[in-house]
Amino acid sequence: AFPPATGTMAAAAVAEGRQLFITLVGGGNSTHCFAPLACAQGHKVAILTRRPDDWSETVEVVNDDTDWLPITKMECKPHVITSDPAACIPHSDIIVIAGIPIHHNPAMLQLIKPHLPTNKKVFIGTICAYGGFDWVAHRELDHCADYSLFGTQLIPWCCGTLEYGKTGIIIGAKRILRIATEDGKDPDGIKDLLRPILRQNLADTDFLASTLWPNNPSLHPPILYGLFKDWDGKTPYDAATLPVAIYAEMNDASAKAVCDLDDELVAITEGLKAKGWKNADDFRFRKCVLENYLEQISDNTDTVTCIRTNKAFAKHKIPYQQVDGGVVPVIAHKFFETDLPFGLVTFKDIALLCGVETPLIDKIIMWNQALIDKEYLAADGSLSGKDIGECIVPSRMGIDLIGLSKSFANGSPAKKARVD
Questions:
Q1: Cα–Cα distance between 175 and 7 in angstroms, integer?
Q2: How far is 185 from 410, CA to CA, in rounded Å?
Q3: pLDDT at 3
Q4: What is the DSSP string of 72-94?
């Protein structure tokens, strides 16, 4: 058995080259990238997926970002690829929910809960820590085991899948990657374990900052709103009139929406700071994206040029489907189904707490929820729609955001900041 993963033991594990058992939960893009990187450090890697039969015995990742890592391809043979959590979770030292939209996090946590190790501390984390991962994790796991939560503030790389179950691709890696822990100071030493695997400059942050940091909900909804805000949900478009690349071909209407939402998100963070949040970060999108991508952005004049000329963003596409008479956007996609309940609705709740007006966020929520046949934001501007229980709404989860934010100055979460 592996020893407990405390801060001291984490550092020792790295120093001694100790083999860890790492389980990747989910079979999406980031799993194809993470598995070869972890195996390259001598760790055992398990992949927990509902489609194990679709995976190759050998998994590889193609690397386009040789400025980050001068290797064009890495491959590995995972220790086990399974749909049975009992085959991997009890052995795990690190569990990473990877490669799945974050609105599936509650179900994934429920899946692993009965199988968590009882003889040691286990790290439980997520690729992309926005959407209140710590709140969700404590609600679903209810402190059932000795675990330490973490998450990458953003996905470590812009990446994709070339062949499912076999080949992933890293388009561009973050130059700085913040790792969220509950007190923002990494007391259990997860960065020491991740650094050799990810081969990136890792910095500390907390989960509240990760929830508010510019991420998918800051980009996908406003870009798509700029394109489709007047769409009736049925009439097809001429494909030739629509952009293919969601970022590189962003039109002016989408660009304006991104900038306006950026202003509203910054206003929310400033409002929370005025309530006592001891966070000195600048949440302006341009600053954040430059921190992450540096020389991969060819024109850093403003927010719009940073998005359009970011090499790491260049290959991401808008999903369309063919219908009689043209194409329509794919609504059953994370762009519409995840970024709203785990992003914009969360922003709105915090805005209400801080007394910050969010006219564009309100418009996007109303537009998006109609497309997916949900009701989160009511006509009176309250988060009281019939489907609000599907969303991450801290005020409805027993989260004392003000107490939580003030507590970070003292290095530990406030006692009232819990999920009831």
A1: 24
A2: 11
A3: 39
A4: SEEEE--SEEES-GGGTGGG-SE
Q: Name the 3-class secondary structure at 159.
A: strand
**pTM confidence score:** 0.86
In 3-state terms, what secondary structure has residue 291? helix
Q: How far apart are CA 189 and CA 354, in angstroms?
A: 33
pLDDT band of 409, cuts 50, 70, 90 = very low
Cα–Cα distance for residue pair 40/309, rounded to 1 Å: 32
Residues 6+ apart with CB under 8 A from 157: 30, 33, 65, 170, 171, 172, 173, 174, 312
Stretch among 121-130, 212-221, 334-343, 393-402 having the lowest mean pLDDT: 393-402
Radius of gyration, CA atoms only, the chain: 21
**Residues whose CB falls within 8 Å of the CB of residue 16, separated by 6 or more in sequence, listed in order:** none
341 to 28, 62, 146, 207, 274: CA distances (angstroms): 20, 33, 29, 17, 25
Structure tokens at 142: 């209810």
Expressed in angstroms, the distance from the first to the final Cα of the chain is: 34
The length of the chain in residues reads: 420
Please tell me the predicted confidence (pLDDT) of residue 9: 54
Tokens 């004049």 locate to: 301
